[in-house]
Amino acid sequence: MRQKSRSVGPVHDLEEHVKPDWWRGIFNHLYLKTDGDVVGDRRITEREIDRITEILALSPESDILDLCCGQGRHTLELVRRGYAAEGLDRSHYLIQKARATAKREGLKVRFKEGDARELPYKPDTFETALILGNSFGYFDSVEEDVRVLREVRRVLKPWGRILLDVTDGEYVKENFQPRSWEWIDEQMFVCRERSLSVDEERLVSREVITHVEKGVVADQFYAERLYTRDALQELLDLAGFSDIAFHDIRTESVRNQDLGMMERRHIVTAVIRKDWTRVKAKQARSVRNVTVILGDTSQPDRIKPSCVFDEDDFYTIDRMKTALAGLKDYRFTFVQKHDALIRDLAKAKGTADYAFNLCDEGLGNDPRKELHVPALLDILGIPYTGAGAQSLAFCYDKSLVRGVARETGIPVPDASFIAPGDRVYNIGVPFPVIVKPNAGDSSFGITQKSIAHSVEELSTVIATMRSTLGYGTSFLVEEFLTGKDISVGIIGNPSGTYTVLPIIEEDYSALPPGLPRICGYEAKWLPESPYWNITSKPAELDPDTEKTVVRCCLTLFERLECRDYCRFDWRLDAAGKPKLLEVNPNPGWCWDGHLARMAGLAGISYAGMLGRILRAAEERLGLDADPRTPPAEHEAGTVPPTETA
Question: What is the pLDDT of residues 351-392, one digit of tens each?
């Protein structure tokens, strides 16, 4: 297939190409190259910390927050000098770099991922807050910048201080270079274009990064607000700060070719005069009433081999109930009669704090109606765990997920969509291929017979699947990847606290030779099949591949509106390059499922996994849960679950 161009070519209006959230994806390994003359030079960082500590007269006892800390260069230097500092940044890539450096140097320092507009700290936590390296003014509106400052005000102690290191907007507006180019190492150079925004309040920049052998590797656009001294003073005053003062700082660079927004900067400091935040007396957590929604065990389920819930299903449900009974401070009520679901949930509204939605079978055990359950909860006004109806609708459509992934630069296998009426298959995908129902769940319809090596075999596979699944079924014909088959699990929410569980890969060593290496329906539902012997093991990935996969998963988690927990399935191609297969919001919760296996590798028990999902939802819903403290476990039966009729 034709490779997507890495450059958009000539552009007449730079501002039209700037995404509102450009800052989500631009701070990666390329940023560390293009800005490396400043942000990668430890000597410059040391001299900047010399100046900052001089201005603030910092004491070793000060609690310091380095906000928008990037790869932690200032945080780490402060800690090396004996200061108590921690860093927060939105970039997963840069935070991982910061953590790796701290680990390598044996430094005890905490780095968090988070949004500067919603800081994950209690009021009155820090004496000093730093926003350095021109990391202020990225948002579309001034109001968002004020929101950042007010959050800083909240987490600072009375008489705490803020220090901002920002570009001299007045100077840059008059002196920016409309076009430049700069060698950033022996093989890469960057060409830049710049212009003022329509309102002349932001500098819009474009960077075309080129490798002498590989060609253009990135074409990226961004915009930063140009604050004058007067505007900064007004902004800090509006956010509640006083004693505002300006200080000089010198920009240094070994390359000293195109410093852009870093060419001329201000250091501005301010003090917050406020009273200590009143702290309510901490009360013992009351028992949380949670309604658990399950599939209807009394109705048929066409996904299951016997089309009914069997002994294994009831055992799985019992294991789940026993695990939940082992969580302190919860009382669970189970709802599973779908004919009376509206009535039972309406009753629960008055007594339940929220619902634990474990109904991945769908309303009436119809997988296409999985989204109906959260939709019903929304209508009734009952908070709940997991993804909403819209997210489930997105992710149920594999072709749609592929489109979203490609739009965000996430690699996917070559594939072709087959509509129900299609009879001629000009797929444009190299053989062998795997045929999947475009909308499906629990690998339904995907078996060893789903692989085709020619057009004739493809026609046979599709005809067979149509006779089994229905002639109204649409299919995705996808290149059959032969590399490692991996899964990534996330519990929590990237906007708050979350955990990326250890990545696992499928172990196909027990399969007889000649069988395709896939984890399909047979591996999940048919004990008599050789595929039943497939196990999972910790994935062995090189660090760059693992970082790429995790970064892409976090991007998709937010883009597809997943919540609280999710599983992402990937497969590597023959060259070891990862490609996304599926996104699974509200993934299987059973005791022996993929998510539980990943949790087990992280030292998290099955009950602990379920408890973490509950805590993630409570944090998101604002139910005063501390997501860093998993629910305590006790002996089953102390707070027994109850069940509705």
Answer: 999 999 999 999 999 989 999 999 999 999 999 999 999 999
Neighbouring residues of 622: CB distance < 8 A, sequence distance ≥ 6: none
Neighbours of 118 (CB within 10 A): 11
List the single range of 100-104, 410-414, 469-473 with lowest mean pLDDT.
469-473
Quote the tokens at residue 582: 């599926």
Neighbours of 55 (CB within 10 A): 16
Say if residue 117 is exposed, middle or buried (CB neighbours under 10 Å; 0-12, 13-18, 19+).
Answer: middle
The end-to-end CA distance of the chain, in Å, is 56
CA dist., res. 161 & res. 166, Å (int):
16
Distance from C-alpha of 550 to C-alpha of 552, rounded to nearest angstrom: 5
| CA 622 to mean position of chain CA atoms | 19
Q: How confident is the model at residue 281 (pLDDT cuts 50, 70, 90)?
A: low
pTM of the prediction?
A: 0.66
pLDDT at residue number 430: 85
Strands (E), 69-118: 84-89, 111-113
Which backbone phi and psi does 135 adopt, to 5 degrees? -100, 25
What is each CA distance from 295 to 145, 299, 317, 335, 345, in whole angstroms? Answer: 46, 9, 10, 9, 14
What tokens appear for 4 in the block?
């997507």
